Amino acid sequence: GAVVSQHPSWVICKSGTSVKIECRSLDFQATTMFWYRQFPKQSLMLMATSNEGSKATYEQGVEKDKFLINHASLTLSTLTVTSAHPEDSSFYICSAGKDAGDFTDTQYFGPGTRLTVL
Amino acid sequence: AQKITQTQPGMFVQEKEAVTLDCTYDTSDQSYGLFWYKQPSSGEMIFLIYQGSYDEQNATEGRYSLNFQKARKSANLVISASQLGDSAMYFCAITEKDSSYKLIFGSGTRLLVRP
């Protein structure tokens, strides 16, 4: 199988605080993981590509200093939303592939994290 | 231009009947992959089926099949014998060899299966 977990599944925080979301590949190693954001009734928008041992690559319009990504190992990537504000409230979902260096590789998704900023 | 276009915001289908969800794509890359994912109300993204640009045969996975028409740049998903549990959002997506293997999604189609 190819299982990806995310923690927490939901989080409520106060405006101005930081929130960390973990994404783990449970039964395979992932050199590359991806972070997406999904607003209600909309599609997934890629935020950044997380590469193990190197800096993440952010999509245009995504603030690097606000959305900190760390890919510390082949099975773990974290997304930290710094100084969160209500407009950051969204569904964040990660994905990983077994061989993300191959464009034919299937990406498997975590269950997502619903962030609500009060 | 949109990389992936899904023109059906919503679809109804009667239980046990087949349904086709449309997807057209736009790429100048010769090497690409097309994916369909299902997203139930719980939010998880479930991989359904994959079609490579060089695959000559249409992909099939159980009740899911992909009607791949390369010249028309379409990759429609066919679900046979619809079940109530098929009610969900369905997303078509593409990866391109020249684009760092990023997965680009369409806007999705909401499918409702009627009993």
Provide a descriptive summary of the structure in words.
The complex is a heterodimer of chains A (118) and B (115). Chain A has no helices and eleven strands. In chain A, the strands form two sheets. In chain A, strands 2, 4, 5, 6, 9, 10 and 11 form a seven-stranded mixed beta sheet that branches. In chain A, strands 1-3-8-7 form a four-stranded antiparallel beta sheet, with no helix packed on it. The N and C termini of chain A lie far apart (38 Å). In chain A, 0% of the residues lie in helices and 52% in strands. Chain A has strands at 4-7, 10-13, 19-25, 32-38, 44-51, 57-58, 67-73, 76-81, 90-97, 107-109, 113-117. With 115 residues, chain B is mostly beta strands. In chain B, strands 2, 5, 6, 10, 11 and 12 form a six-stranded mixed beta sheet that branches. A four-stranded antiparallel beta sheet of chain B has the order 3-9-8-7, with no helix packed on it. In chain B, strand 5 and strand 6 (46-52) form a beta hairpin. Chain B starts with a strand and ends with a strand. The model of chain B has no long low-confidence stretch (mean pLDDT 94). The chains are: A mainly beta (118), B mainly beta (115). At the A-B interface, strand 5, strand 9 and strand 10 of A face strand 5, strand 6, strand 10 and strand 11 of B.
Features:
heterodimer; A: 118 residues; mainly beta; seven-stranded mixed beta sheet; four-stranded antiparallel beta sheet; 52% strand; B: 115 residues
SS element count, helices of chain A: 0
As a percent range, the share of strand residues of chain B is over 45%
The end-to-end span of chain A amounts to: 38 Å
Choose one word for the global shape of chain B. globular
